[in-house]
Design brief:
Elements: H1 7-22, H2 26-32, E1 37-46, E2 52-63, E3 69-76, H3 81-97, E4 104-110, H4 118-132, E5 141-145, H5 151-165, H6 189-205, E6 213-217, H7 221-232, E7 236-242, E8 245-248, H8 255-265, E9 275-276, H9 281-289, E10 295-298, E11 317-319, H10 328-336, E12 340-342, H11 344-347, H12 350-364, H13 370-395, H14 399-418
Parallel strand pairs: 3-4, 3-5, 6-7, 6-10, 10-11, 11-12
Antiparallel strand pairs: 1-2, 2-4, 7-8, 8-9
Helix pairs in contact: 1-3, 1-14, 3-14, 4-5, 6-7, 6-12, 6-13, 12-13, 13-14
The structure holds nicotinamide-adenine-dinucleotide.
Length: about 425
C-alpha cells in the first residue's frame, strides 16, 4: 500500500486537524502531542522447555490531567511503541468524550500469545504487571484488557499486584472475572455502548434499523457482541470476518451460531449456509468492508479503511468498534462522500465506561446489577453522542474532529485550572 500506516502519525494528524479547527493554544497542543510518560520494559520468561525468552513491553501514560490514567494492555506480535502511544492518546480523548474522571494510557507486549502455553502466558502476564508496578495503581493508572488479553490475564495481574503491595487490590485493574471483583456487563460493554450510539446515529440519519443490514469485521469480544446487538436492534448482520476469512449471507447470519462455529473450528470461515468471501483472508476482509450494507462495523485492527478503499465503502454509517480503523486521509474521503463515521473514541467508549463502573464498585465493595450497569451506560453513551453530534453541526466538521474538539477542550480546561507546575 502506498500510504504509510503508522497509528501514532495518524493520531497526531487527527490532533492537528482538531487543534486547527478549534484554534488551540500552541503550548497546550505541544503538551498533548507528546505522552507524559513512556516505560519500555524487558520481560525475561522461563519457557516450558527450560530456555529463556526475552519479550519487550511498554506502558505509555499520555495524560492524567482529568484523573488517573486508564487503558488496556495488548498482546500482539506486531505491536510497537508507536502503536501503544497512539492507543494511549486515544484513551485520553475517549475518557474525556464520555466525561469520566480518567486520563489515558495503554500497554502492550510484542508477543503472539497463541504460541505460548497457559503457564508461559501466566508467567509473562505476572512479569509484565510486576515490571510496570511502580507506575500503576488504583489512583495512578488502571490497566484493562485489549486485543488478545482477557479476564483471566487481568486476574493474574491483580493477584501479582496485590501480592506486591500486601493487600487485596481489585481496583488496580478492570476487566476481571466476576468472582474476583469484576463488574456485571463488562464483557459486553464495548458493544453495548456501541449499540446505544448506533441507535442515536440511525435515528439522526433516518435509517430504520429493522430494514438495515450490517457487516462486522473481526469476531472477538468487540465484533461478536456488536453483531449480536445489531441483530437485537433488528438489523440483518449479513457478513462477519476474522483473521482467517469472511462469510456472507444476504438473509442474515445468526451471531450465536457463528460464535459456536468459531469456537469449534477456530474461525468464522466455512459457516454452514453462508458463502465464504475471497479464499485469501486479507482480500476477504477487504471485500467485507466494501459490501453494500447500511452499517459497517470495523471491530478488528487499525488502518483498514484507507485512501485506497474509502471511495468503495458503500455503507451510510461506519461505527468504529476497533481503535484507529480509519486513516485521516480516508476520514476526509468518507466525510466528502457524506458517510457518517462514529469515531472509535466515542463508539467503543462503552468498554472504558464500564471499566470505570468496575473501579467504583471495587473501591466501594458494593456490586451493581447488570440493569444498573446498562442504564448508567446508556445515559452516558447517548448524551456523549448528542454532545459530539451537536459540535459536528455547529462547527461543520466531521464526527471525529467534533469528538476530538470536545475531548481536547475538557483536557485543556483541566490543565489550565491545575496550572503548569513546577
Ligand atoms: P479480540 O482479541 O477479542 O478479537 C480480535 C478479533 O479480530 C479476532 O476475531 C481476530 O481474528 C480478528 N482479527 C485479527 N486480525 C485481523 C485481521 N487482520 N483482519 C480481520 N480480523 C482480524 O479483540 P477485541 O477486544 O474484540 O478488540 C478488537 C478491536 O476493538 C481492537 O481495535 C480493540 O482495541 C478495540 N476495542 C476493544 C475493546 C474491548 O473491550 N474488547 C474496547 C475498546 C476497543
Amino acid at each position: 500500500m502506498a500510504e504509510r500506516l503508522n497509528p501514532w502519525e495518524n493520531a497526531l494528524k487527527q490532533l492537528d486537524k482538531a487543534a486547527k479547527a478549534m484554534n488551540l493554544n500552541p503550548g497546550y497542543h505541544q503538551i498533548l502531542a507528546t505522552p507524559k510518560r513512556v516505560l519500555e520494559i524487558q520481560l525475561p520468561i522461563k519457557m516450558d522447555d527450560g530456555t529463556i525468552k526475552v519479550f519487550t513491553g511498554w506502558r505509555v501514560q499520555h495524560n492524567d490531567a482529568r484523573g488517573p490514567c486508564k487503558g488496556g494492555i495488548r498482546y500482539h506480535p506486531n505491536t510497537d511503541l508507536d502503536e501503544v502511544k497512539a492507543l494511549a492518546m486515544w484513551m485520553t480523548w475517549k475518557t474525556a468524550v464520555v466525561d469520566i474522571p480518567y486520563g489515558g494510557a495503554k500497554g502492550g507486549i510484542r508477543v503472539d500469545p497463541h504460541k505460548l502455553s497457559p503457564g508461559e502466558l501466566e508467567r509473562l502476564s505476572r512479569r509484565y504487571i510486576y515490571a510496570i508496578s511502580p507506575i500503576v495503581g488504583i489512583n495512578k493508572d488502571i490497566p484493562a484488557p485489549d486485543v488478545y488479553t482477557n479476564p483471566q490475564i487481568m486476574a493474574w495481574m491483580m493477584d501479582t499486584y496485590s501480592a506486591l503491595v500486601g493487600y487485596n487490590e481489585p481496583g488496580v485493574i478492570t476487566g476481571k472475572p466476576l468472582e474476583v471483583g469484576g463488574s456485571e456487563g463488562r464483557e459486553e460493554a464495548t458493544a453495548r455502548g456501541l449499540q446505544y450510539v448506533t441507535e442515536e446515529a440511525v435515528r439522526v440519519l433516518g435509517i430504520d434499523p429493522t430494514r438495515a443490514t450490517a457487516a462486522v469485521q473481526g469476531y472477538g469480544n468487540a465484533g461478536y457482541f456488536s453483531a449480536k446487538f445489531m441483530k437485537e436492534l433488528g438489523m440483518k448482520v449479513v457478513a462477519v470476518s476474522d483473521s482467517k476469512g469472511a462469510i456472507y449471507n444476504p438473509d442474515g447470519l445468526d451471531p450465536e451460531a457463528v460464535l459456536e462455529h468459531k469456537k469449534k473450528t477456530g474461525s468464522v470461515k466455512n459457516f454452514p449456509g453462508a458463502q465464504n468471501l475471497n479464499p485469501d483472508p486479507i482480500k476477504a476482509n477487504q471485500e467485507l468492508l466494501e459490501l453494500d450494507v447500511d452499517v459497517l462495523i470495523p471491530a478488528a485492527i487499525e488502518n483498514v479503511i484507507t485512501k485506497e478503499n474509502a471511495d468503495n465503502i458503500e455503507a451510510k454509517l461506519v461505527v468504529e468498534a476497533a481503535n484507529g480503523p480509519t486513516t485521516p486521509e480516508a476520514d476526509d474521503i468518507l466525510h466528502e462522500r457524506g458517510i457518517i463515521v462514529v469515531p472509535d473514541i466515542l463508539a467503543n467508549a462503552g468498554g472504558v465506561t464500564v471499566s470505570y463502573f468496575e473501579w467504583i464498585q471495587a473501591r466501594t465493595r458494593e456490586w451493581w446489577t447488570v440493569d444498573t450497569v446498562r442504564n448508567k451506560l446508556r445515559a452516558i453513551m447517548s448524551k456523549s453522542f448528542r454532545d459530539v453530534y451537536n459540535i459536528r453541526n455547529e462547527m461543520n466538521v466531521d464526527m471525529r474532529t467534533a469528538a476530538l474538539i470536545l475531548a481536547i477542550k475538557r483536557v485543556v480546561r483541566a490543565l489550565e485550572i491545575r496550572g503548569i507546575w513546577p
